[in-house]
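Minimal example, chain plus inosinic acid.
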Amino acid sequence: MFPKTLIFATNNKHKVQEVQAMLGDTFILKTLDEMGFKDDIEETGGTFEENASIKSRHIYKYFKIDCFADDSGLEVDALNGEPGVYSARYSGTRDDETNLQLVLSKLGDSDNRQANFRSVISLIVNGEEHLFEGVVNGTIRHEKAGAAGFGYDPIFQPDGYAITFAEMSPEQKNTLSHRGKAIEKMVKFLKGERL
Ligand code: IMP
């Protein structure tokens, strides 16, 4: 049964690297680019679950190949859960630095810096949808630190650590991250179902 082809409904190279590293050679991951899929799938949902489902269902309908999509983002307590589903375009642009600076300026010197990253994966196998969620709690730093990763990594410090996600190696981040946790659940499910 292995290796098995799975389409990851994304073109975000950082995410693909993170996920491929966790999957090893058990699954061959194909991105939308690699599948020659060029259309934009509009993420019109109000929750991570809805957006992940919109993407995976669209791709499954198109290719009829097992696939998964993730939707993820940063939720800051003092900002009532923002940027949430708008994480990728919080400032109106897709520029990571501008979005990160907007979170820092909205938060100002607020004492409540609690936040979490959340990731929801919608997996479709043989036409059936399965959802997996991963959450990592932490705090928002006052200033950026580190150069690794992407998005809000330089300002997010996971609980129990004194460094940000952007100061960690990809391997270390994967063991803690929201996406890492969600992927781990999905991989367990996939292996369990087929072994
Ligand atoms: P998505 O691609 O629609 O899931 O949007 C996710 C957005 O949330 C990204 O563009 C980032 O801004 C943010 N995000 C999600 N996961 C991470 C992460 O692991 N580190 C930093 N930012 C993240």
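The chain has one domain: 4-192. The CA atoms of residues 74 and 149 lie 14 Å apart.
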